[in-house]
Amino acid sequence: MSVPRLRLGRSLGRTLRRGHPWIYRDALEGRIPAPGTEVAVTDARGRVLGRGLAEAGPIGVRLWTTDDEPVDDALLGRRLDAAIELRRWLSPRKTDAVRLVHGEGDRMPGVVVDLYGPHAVLALDGEAALTRRDAVLAALRPRLQALGVPTIIGRWGPRGQRTVECLVGPRPPEVVEVREHGMVLCADLMRGQKTGLFLDQRGSRATVRRLARRRRVLDLYAYVGGFSVAAGRGGAAEVVTVDLARPAIELARRAWRANALPEDRQRAVAADVPTLLRELAEQGERFDLVVADPPSFAPSAGARDKALRAYEQLHRACLGLLSPGGLLLAASCSSHVDRAAFEEVLGRAAEADRRVLQVLDRWAAPPDHPRLLAFPEGDYLKATLVRVLA
After folding, report:
1. Catalytic one of 166, 186, 318, 333
2. CA distances (Å), origin 286, targets 93, 238, 283, 347, 349
3. Cα separation of 137 and 120, whole Å?
4. What are the DSSP calls for 95-149, one per residue?
5. Is-catalytic flag, 186?
6. For the chain, is the Cβ count within 10 Å smaller at the N or the C terminus?
7. Fold entry, domain 5-65
8. What is the pLDDT of residue 1?
9. CATH of 198-388 given 3.40.50.150, 3.55.40.20, 3.40.190.10, 3.40.50.1000
10. Predicted TM-score (pTM) above 0.85
């Protein structure tokens, strides 16, 4: 079938052949058709470099393939089958909350599918993906049923105007309990952030669990308390759980109880993090392990400089609360802040606080969040574990 052709106005052929899935609008010549329209992208000689879907906004086209093949139901089915097969051997033991489809990383731009036990959440990013919602749902439904997942919840739309619907199967309970490495986590799939949990921090939670024994732990921007539960299951002496949202704090308390952890070892506080950090410093509080995993400080490229200043202030406040030899797990989910810049401001915070930091480990999202080598924008998550030298 013939599809509209768009010619590149820049020499990006090598980048696209390597698998980069985004073509910005200003790199294309001519008029870009309506979002969701299948297009073929060509070089200056008219050679097809790939096919994808026209998009609205700065991204003009999201590429699905580097071949001249249709973006149809057959391609969608093959991509879903490949993603599911990958998770068959990637999913960790004693875990039923995993990412089944990771958008660009699985060559399905704008399509994310997360599993929470018998419930799936389909999240669509961008107008192009939304135009293919019915096709995605038709392909996804029988494959999920074969996995024993009868419910599909849909999430789409801009932040603040997001639509959440139960599309297939029974509506999930208000709180869904799932397992991660054997520990219980609580998620609100209809009203919670992301798709219910921050599944990309699974490795970070496992690290905290391994390090928490007999330590006093401060979990900042805790959301529903995943790091807190991990610390508790790891034998922490005490965990202070902090988040501004009271419903999140209530879920964090519920998750703590669901893991049969001693209630006197958790103090869950609904509070503004910067304000509470100042109060803890004034009270002379000290911790052995601080987890600082805030929401994105840089939702756009224009917010990058402001975000770096915010990270530096946050890290400096955290370092001021650490005991000698204490550990800071600093994380960022801002794709507009790369690891080098993130660790540079961590170093500046240490310098300002006259601390010397020892890097123990660095990591990104777990394997069920695969990234394309040619797409550094997809490597959004950064976690750095440092120790304060005495």
Report:
1. 333
2. 35, 12, 9, 20, 18
3. 11
4. --EEEEEEGGGGT-TTEEEEEETTEEEEEE-SHHHHHTHHHHHHHHHHHHHHTT-
5. no
6. N
7. 2.30.130
8. 66
9. 3.40.50.150
10. yes
